[in-house]
Amino acid sequence: MAIITKPVNFLKEVKAELGKVSWSTRQELMGATVVVIVVTSIMAAFIGLIDLILSRGLSLLFAG
To answer: Hey, where are the domains in the chain?
Structure first.
């Protein structure tokens, strides 16, 4: 009987804990998503620029 009761108790506890969670509103999620996309884009551009500068610099250093 313990084989069945342990998973059932676990699922009941999970349901109870999920009821305590403070879920974000749709507006908060959209705002956070925009922030993540903007920051990711800025970081990608920055890393790309640094990569380009270092690539050109190393090409000049080793070509000459």
So the answer is: 23-64
